[in-house]
Amino acid sequence: MNLTLSDRSTTSWNMTGYTTFHCPRGQRMKPHFQNLSIDCWQHTRLGISEVSFCLHHSSVELGQPLLAALEELLTQPLPVQRTLSLRPSNRKQSLTTIRLRLVDPRDNLQVMHIHSAENALIIEMTSKGHELVRQAISTWLSGSEDFGISPLRAKLKKSDYGALDKASAELWFWGPDWMP
Q1: Mean predicted confidence (pLDDT) in 101-117
Q2: Which end of the chain has the lower number of beta carbons within 10 A, N or C?
């Protein structure tokens, strides 16, 4: 099913049920979400989770498209997804794609699930998770670094977390002054 949003883009449902956006030339990503100079990689435990994912930028403005993508998620009906591509990195276990998914809460997901698949960092989040990620990226872009987020930062009762929240990795943020 395709719905016209404007003369420049259409929306359609893909096999996973997430809304994706297509440019007239068939591109899946907006140009300002492509080839970002952000390093992204999988790391061993840095905090409370077995697996951590790291983001590093060499200057604050390089992370702005992440915040823009998060804000765009709020303008569309759920479920919705934004995909960002990253320049290749020399880091071991580097990832070249970030998929941000905003979904309705469900039994197994109340906050967010951070994981990877097919060379992509995937952050599937509810509105509670979106707020945590947005605050973290805003903090990162204001110059803070060497900190991580996880669904457990939502401060819910243990019984209120879903299975995917509990199984989530952490996301760590690094900047020009701190190189892990």
Answers
A1: 96
A2: N
